[in-house]
Amino acid sequence: MKKLLAPPPAISFARVLAYAIVDETVRFTGEQRLYVGNELIGAVPCIALCEELRNDHAGFFVAYCNEKWEAVAIAPATDPNSAMRQAEHYYRGLGALWTQTTVTVHQAREWIARSSPEEVCSFCGRLPFEISNLVRGNDAAICNLCLDAFHADIHSGKNQETYEAT
Fold first, then answer.
1. Are 11 and 71 within 8 A, CB to CB?
2. Which residue has the higher pLDDT, 57 or 150?
3. Is residue 80 helix, strand or coil?
4. How is the chain split into domains, by residue range?
5. In angstroms, rounded to a whole number, what is the distance separating the alpha carbons of residues 98 and 108?
6. What are phi and psi of 80, to 5 degrees?
7. Per-residue confidence at 151, pLDDT binned at 50, 70, 90?
8. Whole-number pLDDT of residue 97
């Protein structure tokens, strides 16, 4: 079995607070049934405790991940302790394997912007969880908030600048 690496600073646009790599000391109980579409996933090799970065939604979740730390399933939780207990219920022995991270909110946000530039507004730099929609062009993307601001500015009659399409 190849050695798995630590997770990135963020998974599913949320900050990683702690993680565990499932090894032979852990027993998957099978009590948890995770599906993607109609396919039962079964045990996963990597589990992360994550904190939402959205300003309007403080929350936590357990990300059940593949070996590349891509979330294949997410289970919401009210707080970090209940999230860890939930994961430990389905993966007996996991408690001894948790590794706390030192990832700051700033580091997680920077990593998301670098790793998913196509998901970031080219005008204001907002991240996916801060916007409702993102319109993508060839070399740029604009979020709904910037579109609203530009629309209001153009139709206000106050600003007579010319906007050129490139």
1. yes
2. 150
3. helix
4. 10-109, 118-156
5. 19
6. -60, -40
7. confident
8. 96
58 token code pair = 């403080």
Q: Report the half-sphere exposure of 119 (CA within 13 A, side-chain side).
A: 15
Looking at residue 52, its amino acid is: E
Is 157 within 8 Å of 137 (Cβ atoms)? no
| Distance between CA atoms of residues 128 and 106, nearest Å | 15
The structure tokens listed for 114 are 């670098």
Evaluate whether 140 touches 56 at the Cβ level (below 8 Å): no
Q: Are 159 and 153 in contact (CB under 8 A)?
A: yes
Distance CA 139, CA 163 (A): 17
Q: Is the pLDDT reported for residue 87 higher than 80?
A: yes
Q: Name residue 88's amino acid.
A: E
Single-letter code of the amino acid located at 155: H
Contact 12, 89 (CB under 8 A): no
Distance, CA of 42 to CA of 11 (rounded, Å): 20
According to DSSP, the residues that pair with 134 across neighbouring strands are 143
Q: What CA–CA distance (Å, rounded) separates 86 from 26?
A: 14
Pairing of strands 91-92, 71-77: unpaired
